[in-house]
Amino acid sequence: MTLDFTAILARWQMLLDGLALTVQLAAVTTLTGFLIGTLCAIARRSDVSALRWVASVYIEAIRNTPFLVQIFVVYFGLSSLGFSFSAVTVAIIALTINVGAYTAEIMRAGFDAIHPGQWEAGECLGLSRTQTYWHVALRPAMERVYPSLTSQFILLMLASSVTSQISAEELTAAANFIQSETYRPFETYIVVALIYLALSLAMRVVFWAFGLAVFPRRRRLGTNL
Amino acid sequence: MSVVVLKNVKKSFGSLPVLHGVSFAVAKGEVLALIGASGSGKSTALRCIDRLEIVDSGEIEVCGHMVHDPGLDLRRLRLDVGIVFQSYNLFPHLTIKENVTLAPRSVKKLDRRAADEIAMQSLQKVGLAEKADNYPEQLSGGQQQRAAIARSLAMEPKVMLFDEVTSALDPKLTGEVLKVIEALAASGMTMIMVTHEMGFARRVADQVVFMHEGLVHEAGSADILTNPSTPELREFVSNDL
Amino acid sequence: MNTAINSGHLVFLLNGAMWTLVLSLLAFAGGGLGGFVVALGRTSPIKVLRILSSAYVQLIQGTPLLVILFLTFFGLPTLGFSITPLFAAALSLTIYVSAYLGEIWRGCIESVPKAQWEAAECLALSRVQRMFKVILPQAVRIATPPTVGFSVQIIKNTSLASVVGFVELARAGQLINNSIFEPFAIYMIVALLYFCLCFPVSALSKRLERTGAARLRTLKAASA
Known about the structure:
heterotrimer; A: 225 residues; mainly alpha; MetI-like fold; 10 helices; C: 224 residues
């Protein structure tokens, strides 16, 4: 048999729509996930044992269960509570909850790597705990774990393919639809795999550029912290 | 009138007693040198003054703040006290100027221009104005330590604490840092410094406190370094020569 | 219609969990083998092998496992191969795991201190001897904690096999749900069962990491 991509490429509009949603899911949940993850990392390091405990339970529960099951729990959990959100909203919530737990562990390692003298110096200058986290610890911690963060958020983008299972019309869902129409599954998934590959490379570039913007010291000196 | 007073301060780390009842006082504009062998408790005493360690018993009063009081307003204490550490502890991701303006901007809520002005003044005092836009790692150890001093000065503290600030530096760099501290002393700043530099203590200190095994073993004017009355201080001073 | 979760359902779920483990082991065995080849390729002195293995890793790590699974399950039959859901799942997991484990193991091989290579060279060992007698035994120790850690990812990722109809734990949950429609309760139980499978492995990997970090330090110190 021969490969024939014409039927798939003819449906480029559908692929483009799917890609657009995948990009949106990845972009939004990278931000929300980073926020939740960083807050959980801080909670995990808190002096308040209840906060530490809640953060640990969340992190362990998420890291030890599959995303596919998490997304169903969120989907049916929300609807049993009487909420009826769109598939995209549920996808965003589930992806955020998921990546938040992984980001929390990464950022915790970053914060733990900050020398005690840095915290002390912030404290002695009269900065509050929050100000010390914000001005003194956050950027160096991020800079140290930036490669891990980059990989994690690329994994997040790839994991967004699973949201096709609750009918979020992202790239994989578009592929499923196209292959059922064209009976060309091999060609369809090859094309989609290449789009994902391009997207993950593009994300590397975006993270690299963002890194240049937020770590001016690194940009100017080119050295590691 | 005393700016810093310690009365019978005791402190243990776990089962290891470090301070057995330390008392001394520093008057406004005075320079106190805290000397002693390592493990004598001098750094712990200094850290207690800025509440980096919490005392087990005894009293510490700093600029009217009751430091031993659990209900102490920490931020107000830290506005009055500046501290410089042996390891500089500059923030590596900020330029020297950003290091210096951080606290004036976020604690004192000064606007950028006012904070920049104060920063440049303190950097001038330590002779680093031209390094304002460099990052800490681009500076020598001595320059980093001077930058750390400028960072404290920018908060206009009433008391400065120095914790072995030249111990990590070679003699040449030590000299440039000591010169800055000496100028600061001459300007009337109240200071407590933990130091191993006996010559410097002799020259600058109004009061010398020699600590030994967690107690003030001998105290007095800088003359005690030349004419010690206890055998322990005599031995300590002679080791230095 | 029976609307309560009964012990029969639990047995069905546990049976699914067993298949989750079987699939995980298949994926680990296949992916481990492939990963070893990838790691050797990535650290090979032959440039072509390095480029090929690196391209493979980039390609697989840039593609969702779900798409790899669809490609094998729906795609291979149109090319004339007939395959079962279990085979499709095991094959795609093998492909996926080999890229990630290969990359993890490359890092481990490269983190064996340089002095060890040089010492082995001075003893006039051949390159193959150096690799198998000196470097790999040390790399295996370094590799154990991250490999155990990645096993958790394998177990979790086997859940995607449910999408092509292989009855493992997640699919077992879906099937029960189809008959009694208690999705939230069922997926919570399914999640709990996954947790019971994964948490001990996670905990083990964390413990190994702690002791491993100490060992690596002494290793570095000894060869310094």
